[in-house]
């Protein structure tokens, strides 16, 4: 896991917590005391007093105080004793005891890369092109042959390469720029169809579905191609739906994620102790201790609530060790209290682990809006604003758009281009922008965009000076198992080895089968009863040649029935495909290992079922008892 710094200080000058009118923490409390030195070190957090536990009349399940105390207990587990020479070199004659917090956040060159990777996200003049909806069609059996003939009719692409007009694709995003430093949260606002999901998918390094992407995206000095090849787990994208195996409990889901991303023994002195402490910390930090032994569930199987399932997704992503988190519309279907709990969890995760977090939320409340550091407004694939959350309203009011008193800031920013919803400042009736193109033109000409471009250039320069890309590479190499003796392991995006992945996947597959034990028992009983019924139909067959055809029919039925029953596994394979895609993107395991594990795990129950089925059918049909 990457990016594990202690909690930051978040209290007022008098030591008390600052709360809003509804009892939830204010933006000043959650953002005002996050301090770091120029070298990236983080000040230790003092104890918090009187932390609020209610919001909108509902209990808050995310506790910063409990998370702080639990997280500090992991530090001792992570601390691996140094040699005498290393201690003398790091302490420089100080003689004091080794402090893990100072070692992690101080970036001591003597110790190599820190445990907490500083990545950050920057995108400059980003433009995305896709296919027109009219060009899409449903694929059929003849589709590959039609594409080949169409490719040949167009000269095998040669005229297209020689043409200067370029591809005639639809422009989805146009010239977007911004920076999200480590420890910052960016809120992306826009109406449905504005391009928010496209932007988040590209920032989450899910680029294969788009025709062309211009501009640059950098993850702490790493290119998207380099991240996809060797450092895929450092960037995590989470879609609207929470994808988990429904029959696993919350504890089993997080335990599997921790085991798959567990660092090597070069970074840990007690791997088993780390796993136990880290799992308990995640359950306590995100308010999941009460439902730890409850199945996750889904739309068809009752399990934890929607808010708890969202927090399970956050905890799983924390366990995966990603340094850049992208969340696409993840508050859909949540009530106001659960949505606030969810965003508070993201805020804590971002502060503690120094992550770069990008979130898109529809209809965010004012308390949720104030938890973010920056906001970006998008409409029709164009950038209308990027900057601090506190300056967004003032910027649009300078353009002539007035914010109503009782309207939330997020709703105001989302509807600035809606002519029937917005209010014009008196005197700006003829000057206020009316379309997304007008807003984009004024944004490009504004000083705010110049400041953003300066921040982008400064951050890119800082990343080069800090050699942050080299720092990330060295850190990931240290976390990989067997990387010290095998150079091929250093280029692999997976933390664990193939045998280790096989063991962990086999344990999880066994737990999934045990969670579906009633379904498995019903299917087995169904097959055995079916064998008895069919065998009874073929009982007392004649011993003459008249019964030869019927006996061959019994044997053929036995083979055909077992083959058809195996088709029932397709439902489980398809339903678990999205979970596999997500966990593959987090570099938890290789999909080929999962296929092998599923084959091996199904052998024992299938062998027992088929053996009993064949025995009952064989005996009920009265087939020969001997080979003679």
Largest sheet: 6 strands, mixed
**Kindly state the mean pLDDT as a whole number?**
76
Uncertain spans: 1-50, 90-116
Major sheet strand order = 7-8-9-5-10-11
Helical amount: 40-55%
Protein architecture, described:
The protein has 628 residues and is α/β, with parallel strands linked by helices. It is built from 25 helices and 13 strands. It has a six-stranded mixed beta sheet with strand order 7-8-9-5-10-11. It is elongated. The model is unreliable at 1-50 and 90-116 (pLDDT under 50).
Question: Which short descriptors sum up this protein?
Answer:
disordered N terminus; three-stranded antiparallel β-sheet; single chain; six-stranded mixed β-sheet; alpha/beta; 628 residues
What does this entry show, briefly?
With 628 residues, this protein is α/β, with parallel strands linked by helices. Helices cover 47% and strands 11% of the residues.
């Amino acid at each position: 896991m990457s990016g594990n710094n202690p909690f930051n200080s978040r209290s007022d000058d008098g030591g008390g917590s600052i709360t809003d009118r509804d009892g939830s923490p204010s933006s000043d409390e959650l953002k005002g005391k996050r301090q770091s030195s120029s070298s990236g070190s983080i000040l230790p957090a003092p104890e918090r007093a009187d932390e609020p536990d209610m919001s909108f009349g509902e209990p808050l399940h995310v506790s910063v105080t409990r998370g702080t105390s639990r997280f500090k207990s992991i530090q001792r587990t992570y601390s691996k004793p140094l040699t005498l020479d290393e201690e003398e070199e790091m302490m420089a004659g100080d003689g004091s005891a080794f402090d893990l917090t100072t070692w992690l956040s101080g970036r001591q060159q003597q110790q190599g890369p820190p445990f907490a990777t500083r990545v950050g996200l920057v995108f400059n003049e980003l433009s995305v092109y896709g296919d027109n909806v009219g060009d899409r069609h449903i694929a059929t059996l003849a589709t590959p042959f039609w594409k080949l003939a169409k490719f040949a009719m167009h000269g095998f692409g040669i005229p297209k390469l020689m043409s200067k007009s370029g591809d005639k694709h639809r422009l989805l995003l146009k010239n977007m720029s911004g920076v999200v430093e480590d420890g910052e949260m960016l809120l992306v606002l826009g109406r449905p169809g504005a391009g928010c999901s496209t932007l988040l998918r590209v920032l989450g390094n899910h680029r294969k579905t788009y025709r062309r992407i211009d501009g640059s995206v950098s993850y702490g000095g790493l290119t998207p191609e380099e991240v996809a090849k060797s450092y895929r787990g450092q960037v995590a994208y989470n879609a609207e739906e929470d994808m988990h195996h429904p029959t696993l409990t919350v504890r089993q889901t997080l335990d599997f994620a921790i085991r798959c991303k567990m660092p090597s023994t070069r970074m840990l002195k007690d791997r088993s102790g780390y796993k136990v402490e880290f799992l308990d910390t995640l359950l306590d930090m995100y308010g999941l201790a009460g439902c730890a032994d409850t199945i996750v569930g889904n739309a068809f199987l009752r399990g934890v609530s929607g808010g708890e399932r969202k927090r399970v997704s956050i905890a799983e992503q924390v366990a995966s060790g990603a340094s850049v988190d992208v969340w696409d519309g993840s508050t859909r279907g949540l009530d106001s209290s659960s949505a606030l709990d969810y965003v508070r969890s993201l805020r804590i995760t971002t502060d503690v682990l120094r992550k770069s977090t990008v979130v898109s939320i529809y209809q965010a409340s004012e308390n949720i809006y104030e938890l973010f550091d920056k906001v970006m407004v998008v409409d029709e694939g164009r950038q209308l604003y990027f900057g601090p959350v506190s300056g967004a309203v003032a910027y649009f009011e300078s353009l002539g758009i007035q914010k109503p008193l009782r309207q939330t800031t997020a709703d105001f920013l989302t509807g600035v281009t809606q002519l029937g919803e917005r209010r014009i400042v008196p005197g700006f009736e003829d000057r206020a922008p009316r379309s997304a193109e007008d807003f984009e033109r004024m944004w490009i000409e504004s000083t705010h965009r110049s400041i953003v471009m300066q921040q982008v250039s400064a951050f890119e320069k800082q990343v080069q000076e800090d050699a942050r890309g080299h720092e990330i590479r060295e850190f990931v190499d240290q976390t990989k198992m067997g990387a010290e003796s095998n150079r091929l392991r250093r280029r692999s995006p997976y933390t664990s080895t193939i045998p280790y992945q096989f063991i962990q996947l086999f344990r999880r597959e066994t737990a999934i089968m045990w969670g579906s034990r009633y379904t498995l028992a019903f299917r087995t009983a169904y097959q055995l009863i079916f064998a008895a019924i069919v065998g009874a139909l073929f009982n007392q067959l004649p011993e003459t040649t008249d019964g030869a055809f019927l006996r061959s029919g019994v044997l053929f039925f036995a083979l055909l029935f077992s083959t058809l029953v195996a088709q029932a596994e397709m439902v489980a394979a398809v339903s678990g495909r999205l979970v596999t895609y997500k966990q593959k993107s987090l570099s938890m395991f290789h999909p080929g290992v999962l296929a092998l594990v599923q084959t091996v795990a199904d052998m024992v129950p299938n062998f027992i079922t088929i053996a009993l089925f064949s025995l009952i059918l064989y005996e009920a049909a009265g087939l020969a008892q001997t080979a003679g």
